[in-house]
Amino acid sequence: MVIGRRSSNERPTRCPKCGEAEIVRIAYGLPSPELVEEAQRGEVALGGCCIDDDSPEFRCKQCGHEWSRARAWDVSRREDGATEG
Ligand SMILES: [Zn+2]
After folding, report:
1. Which domain holds residue 40?
2. Residue 58 lies in a domain
């Protein structure tokens, strides 16, 4: 068994429902041509043009379960440096 070690730890490793390791990220918005090709290869899922707080972020390729990490995150955590005035 080989454990892939990647620099990014932001991605869940397994489906919280069935434990499947084949997980794809769900991309929202207008997909780029590259993103469309990735979706056709099953490397990413296209979630449509609209996203809201309830939109799932990941999809299990095994059972089709979709979920988001956002529920476990602090919603107030923002990195937007927008200032007004
Ligand atoms: Zn699953």
Report:
1. 23-69
2. yes
- Give the distance (Å) from ligand 1 centre to CA of residue 22: 8
pTM over 0.70: no
Pick from 37, 75, 68, 33: nearest CA to 51: 68
Q: For residues 78 and 62, what is the distance between their CA atoms, to the nearest angstrom?
A: 32
13 C-alpha to center of ligand 1: Å? 11
CA–centroid distance, 55 to ligand 1, in Å, is: 17
Domain count of the fold of the chain: 1
Model pLDDT, residue 12: 79
Is residue 16 domain-resident?
no
Distance (Å) from CA 83 to ligand 1 centroid: 41
Q: Residues 55-73: what's their mean pLDDT? A: 83
